[in-house]
Description:
single chain; Alpha-Beta Plaits; 9-stranded mixed β-sheet; elongated
Amino acid sequence: MLIGIDDTDSPEGMCTTYLGALLAERLENAGNTIKTAHLIRLNPNVKFKTRGNAAICLEVIGGDTDEIFSIAETTIDELAETDHPRTEPGLVLTESPVPGAFYHQAVTSFCSIEEAQTLLKNTGAKFKGWKGGRGLIGATAAVSAVSASIFDKTWEFLAYRDHREKGLRQIEAPSLWEADRATTPHTWDSVDPENNCIVCVPHTPDPVLYGIRGDSEEWVRTAAQIIRSQSPEWTMCYQTNQGTDAHLINGEIGNLIEGHSYRLFGTVASVPKTGQGGHVSFLLSGGIDDGEVQCMAYEPTKGFRDIVRSLLPGDTITICGSLKEGSINLEKMQVHTAPAHRRAEAPICDSCGKRMTSAGKDKGYKCRKCGERAASPDYTTIARTLVPGWYEVPPCARRHLARPLIRELP
Ligand code: ZN
């Protein structure tokens, strides 16, 4: 059977993955077997979310469904941050598969609570929503993803401290770098060498000590063994859809929907400019009726902005990112062509070596000193430093669902 839970945390604490780990332990203590624990990330652009829009699905073998449902219910009652006005937990238990279409909709678009409830009733699932029951959307999406088995998979090893602990986490930073060096490219985003910072340890008041992401359970466990930290209250290895680009759909400029995430092909249509706060923007054209969309690389994407600044009008690229308030927030891009540019300049006078000036519109150039004329300008070729290929934001700016380039495709 599959158990889905979602929306148990708040910005002040808790974490749905911690609650899932605790529930897994309680179910095992009650004589059930947890086959696999899944951490499913959903549309990162949903407004009602705490940090990462994560839901949990536990694959459970054994037991009495009423008893299992009741253990899950008690665990949520006990630990979910239901006092927070925006925390609305959802719990689902199903023995029949839930169609994968719901997950696909929840990771790329938006779902309503009513849609989730209808699907659950049709499937014959047991479910409960606390307060408004918004968490039923994620809980349903998580069991939908797992029962349809339609997602590309990665792993995350999570170490937790006691959920009442709110202070600084005791972790030896050098051991995180060692763990990264020993397991790269099979683990990723533990550290950010380009920006010399640690990515896998949160700064939020939740129970996560650290999380190691990678392409197999063996690799994330190998990395975790190298890490020296305060002794975790417990650990959990989740199968996830993180780092898979599951949120991206192939789109066309001119036909884009707010809150959706796309892969878009187009031609750079303006010279990138750096605005207030260091955000870089440019226009991309293409798609339906040669439409245009603004693309943004925000300040937290750090060095990636230098790549974006080196684009020139006429370059052809594919970009990946979400449409937010009318602009695409870039996650990565593939440069297809970045041809050398020719810049026209007034020619140098053959007789006196001075640079000529324009003689007027369509009248060529004239030397102001000796009167010599020239019909056409001199062209200088501007060499490009930008070479075709993929470019991405650094680990410190990566979204959970975005596939890092280091990750080899399965
Ligand atoms: Zn001259």
